[in-house]
Amino acid sequence: MLLMAKCSLVSWTLALSTSSVLAHPLFNGRLVSRADELLEEYDYVIVGGGASGLTVANRLSEQPSTTVLVIEAGQFDQNEEFVTIPGLAGGAVSTKYDWNTTYAASEYLGGRNISISQGKIVGGSTKLNRMVFDRGSKSDYDGWETLGNERWDWESLLPYFKKNEIFSPPVDEIREEYNITWDDDAHGYDGYMHSTYSPYIWPTTKNLVEATSSLNIPIPKDQANGNAIGGYFTPHNMDPIDYRRSSADEAYYDTAATRENFHLIADHQATRILTCANSTLKATGFATSSNATIQSVKAKREVVVAAGSLHTPQLLQVSGIGDPALLSSIDIPTVVDLPAVGQSLHDHVYVMVANSVNTTITLASELTSNATFAAEARAQYDTEKRGPLTSPSGDFLLFLPLSIYTNTSASIHAAALASNASLSLPSDAPTEVAAGYAASYHSLNSKLLANDSAFLEVIWADGVLFLGLQHPYSRGSVKAPSSSIFDAPIADAGFLRNPLDTVLLREAVRFARRLVAQPSIAELNPFEVVPGANVTSDADIDQYIKNSASTLWHPAGSCKIGKRDEGGVVDGELKVYGIEGLRVVDASVFPILPASHIMTTVYAVAERAADIIKGVGGAIEMS
Ligand SMILES: Cc1cc2nc3c(=O)[nH]c(=O)nc-3n(C[C@H](O)[C@H](O)[C@H](O)COP(=O)(O)OP(=O)(O)OC[C@H]3O[C@@H](n4cnc5c(N)ncnc54)[C@H](O)[C@@H]3O)c2cc1C
Ligand SMILES: *[C@@H]1O[C@H](CO)[C@@H](O)[C@H](O)[C@H]1NC(C)=O
Ligand SMILES: *[C@@H]1O[C@H](CO)[C@@H](O)[C@H](O)[C@H]1NC(C)=O
Ligand SMILES: *[C@@H]1O[C@H](CO)[C@@H](O)[C@H](O)[C@H]1NC(C)=O
Ligand SMILES: *[C@@H]1O[C@H](CO)[C@@H](O)[C@H](O)[C@H]1NC(C)=O
Ligand SMILES: *[C@@H]1O[C@H](CO)[C@@H](O)[C@H](O)[C@H]1NC(C)=O
Ligand SMILES: *[C@@H]1O[C@H](CO)[C@@H](O)[C@H](O)[C@H]1NC(C)=O
Ligand SMILES: *[C@@H]1O[C@H](CO)[C@@H](O)[C@H](O)[C@H]1NC(C)=O
Ligand SMILES: *[C@@H]1O[C@H](CO)[C@@H](O)[C@H](O)[C@H]1NC(C)=O
Ligand SMILES: *[C@@H]1O[C@H](CO)[C@@H](O)[C@H](O)[C@H]1NC(C)=O
Ligand SMILES: *[C@@H]1O[C@H](CO)[C@@H](O)[C@H](O)[C@H]1NC(C)=O
Ligand SMILES: *[C@@H]1O[C@H](CO)[C@@H](O)[C@H](O)[C@H]1NC(C)=O
Q1: 337 FRET partner, CA 20 to 30 A, in 237, 239, 295, 327?
Q2: Nearest CA to ligand 3 atom 1
Q3: CA–CA dist 123, 133 (Å, integer)
């Protein structure tokens, strides 16, 4: 195999291949677009130029003597409006900037498969996402430590949430209109990602805020200070002057791109991390297509895999790091026997309750149904940087502990205690994964009764409610289908595998109806279109959930931090077990999802990882 002859070299090597068609202009001294312009070796080679990869690359290349290469499968965007304008956020889904991955068909979903977008673009999923820029609660991160991950807790991560951020308060008009409050101390001001509140909020948001209050649900001062419980106004990742999306590209690539020690090659996909025995030589290959020539590049110190929760485990597997049974089935010799690679995958599963409304209040649907309105909104955005297109929507979100959204929390808790953790796991889950999951199960059970941990997110859009399960019990896996990285990974988020998840969503559907019945929403004349007011029994609601549940695009956990005999793939310093010089830094390392959208947590983990790699600040002493 490629490069095996170089086994005596004490270095990492990445192999890459390139096609003759290059999407980007030639090497300009910093951006490398042709494989033959790469240096022969770099100190660090980072696979994946998304949220985490660009963060780590930026921080490591702060030292001029440290050379860094990022290999990114996707291209640079061309500042398309659907990428830059907040009101068009999400428009890059299902374009060439999307891997178009799909969760495998599942019996728990009535045989459905579910598409799961992932960014294939410089900036990764931060170019596709809906721009909710929030954090989980203190308890979410403290729970990481409870699972056995020393110093992975709120207090250790908070400085890194701040390090990522350049926070700006809301503009006066919107602050006054909506009484938005915030906690100065919780935010960062010297980071790279802009965050601020929309200067325009779709007006039925007020009806939601009032309904929240009339149900006595708290509205915290700020979601960012560890108390993200109740209904809160959320910032978005956007520039407070021109209200354009702030992504990992603008934040962490543009600000480092003039450094001579920092190269990025786009449109090349890492095909393999080449290894020699269990250490010494590590290498990845990258290519634009399966038939292109594979070339290689060495890493003197480390390879950092930051390819996202679905592609990172696949890359490890095709490189021989994973479950020997899986690897032999795809003709890959085992380099490290690490069955947990790809396991423990989970994601925020949601169902929708959709009401039509009948009101004279302006609705977001006018952007698509009323050309005059759309043209005015566009003109206002272009000339004043105000108006509907400054909002990606989702400006006020609910994050609710179980006891706030249902009176049945005690009986759900009793049912969970009486049930069997193995119901959450695929039948072929390796022993160490099952052993580690026992601790997660215990932790989830205690969250059922906790008031400082949210189980449900409610996203509102003019009568349509998206109900997202924040702490799902179910787990799935990612498996390479073949030895080729160009074949899409087989990913199963495990949605609804454990029936407890259906029960938790069933109560969410009932809560949505109570919320909609509040006077401030009732005045919008809501009519429940989906699932329909006649869907009320447990069985009928459950059937609806099975037939409609989908993803909020937060896959995580597939290379989680943890002890090796408890299903961990990386240790507390994010080093892959059983091999030297290889780390994983992306959403796949989360031991368990926080109750929030997850981009800020990805950034905080990546900021911290950079310090760990540099051996400063956030370094963790591992016993
Ligand atoms: C449609 C959508 C909406 C979302 N909405 C929100 C939101 O509103 N708020 C929020 O907080 N989060 C949101 N998220 C989630 C958030 O964007 C992601 O969790 C985050 O970007 C993950 O960071 P990452 O570094 O793990 O992966 P990514 O940012 O996805 O980066 C991974 C990168 O690796 C590259 N890559 C993969 N394989 C290879 C390979 N073999 N070789 C080279 N490169 C490779 C990919 O092309 C990609 O650029 C959303 C995500 C999506 C898809
Ligand atoms: C994703 O699907 C869209 C629409 O079919 C397509 O144009 C795009 O090329 C696909 N993305 C990739 C990476 O293949
Ligand atoms: C997903 O399911 C649809 C409908 O059954 C099918 O047409 C499609 O091929 C499936 N996609 C994948 C990737 O399995
Ligand atoms: C803001 O506060 C004022 C005064 O307490 C109140 O009348 C108004 O309804 C509040 N607005 C919102 C959106 O909650
Ligand atoms: C390489 O593969 C791609 C996609 O599989 C195909 O479109 C292209 O024609 C192939 N090129 C050559 C030179 O075979
Ligand atoms: C909406 O409300 C108006 C005024 O009450 C009424 O005339 C109209 O019939 C309603 N439309 C629908 C679709 O219910
Ligand atoms: C369309 O938008 C314009 C401008 O806001 C508004 O005047 C008009 O009433 C709208 N038309 C409809 C049918 O709502
Ligand atoms: C719980 O029960 C009380 C008393 O019957 C009722 O007022 C309240 O609305 C219920 N709450 C939920 C979340 O069901
Ligand atoms: C849980 O389920 C597993 C697998 O089905 C079984 O082996 C085990 O005995 C069960 N444990 C309990 C306490 O029921
Ligand atoms: C959570 O809040 C409920 C209602 O206020 C209360 O009854 C319960 O004791 C609280 N639980 C914990 C663990 O504090
Ligand atoms: C609810 O009503 C709709 C429309 O009449 C019908 O198609 C559906 O089967 C009903 N569902 C249930 C659970 O009764
Ligand atoms: C590498 O393999 C050798 C020999 O099998 C073993 O002694 C050593 O502990 C391994 N290193 C790691 C990091 O697992």
Answers
A1: 295
A2: 113
A3: 16
SS3 content of the chain, % helix, strand, coil (to 5): 35, 20, 45
Residue whose CA is at the smallest distance from ligand 1 atom 13: 129
Q: Whose CA is nearest to atom 13 of ligand 10?
A: 450
How far apart CA 479 and CA 426 sit, in angstroms, is 12
- Treating both helix axes as pointing N-terminal to C-terminal, what angle do 431-449 and 138-146 enclose, rounded to 10 degrees? 140
Predicted local distance difference test score (pLDDT) of residue 5: 33
Which residues make beta-bridge pairs with 16? 295
Task: Report yes or no: 292 and 19 within 8 Å, Cβ to Cβ.
Answer: yes
Question: What's the pLDDT band for 514 if we cut at 50, 70, 90?
Answer: very high
For residue 481, give both structure tokens: 């289908």
At residue 396, does pLDDT exceed 60? yes
Q: Which two tokens stand for residue 54?
A: 């660009």
Q: How far apart are CA 569 and CA 558, in angstroms?
A: 8
User: What is the chain's Cα-based Rg?
Assistant: 24
Please measure the distance between the N-terminal and C-terminal CA atoms of the chain and give it in whole angstroms. 36
Tokens standing for 29?
Answer: 């001294």
Question: 514 C-alpha vs ligand 11 centroid, how far in Å?
Answer: 21
**Over the stretch 156-204, which tens digit does the pLDDT of each residue have?**
999 999 999 999 999 999 999 999 999 999 999 999 999 999 999 999 9
- CB of residue 431 inside a 6 A radius of ligand 10: no
Q: Is the shortest distance between the CB of 98 and ligand 2 below 6 Å?
A: yes
Using alpha carbons, select from 311, 581, 565, 603 the residue that is nearest to residue 573.
Answer: 581
Q: Atom of ligand 12 at shortest distance to CA of 578?
A: 14
Q: Over the stretch 357-393, which tens digit does the pLDDT of each residue have?
A: 999 999 999 999 999 999 999 999 999 999 999 999 9
CA dist., res. 147 & res. 214, Å (int): 37
Q: Residue 451: CB within 6 Å of ligand 10?
A: yes
Q: Are strands 456-461 and 464-469 parallel, antiparallel or unpaired?
A: antiparallel
The residue with tokens 């990025």 is 264
Burial class (CB in 10 A: 0-12, 13-18, 19+), 488: middle
Q: Does 540 contact ligand 11 (Cβ within 6 A)?
A: yes
Residue nearest to atom 2 of ligand 12 (CA): 278
pTM of the model: 0.94
Mutation probe of ligand 10 site: the residue of 215, 403, 447, 449 with most atoms within 8 A of C-beta: 403
Residue type, 314: Q
- How much is the pLDDT for 620? 60
- Can you list the alpha helix ranges (DSSP code H) found in 294-333? 308-318, 324-329
The Cα 600–Cα 218 span in angstroms is: 23
In this model, does residue 27 exceed pLDDT 50?
no
pLDDT digits (tens, 9 = 90+) for 310-324: 999 999 999 999 999
Ligand 10 midpoint to CA 474 (Å): 26
Q: Work out the mean pLDDT of the chain and round it to a whole number.
A: 92
What digits encode the pLDDT tens for the residues 64-93? 999 999 999 999 999 999 999 999 999 999
Residues 493-498 have a mean pLDDT of 98
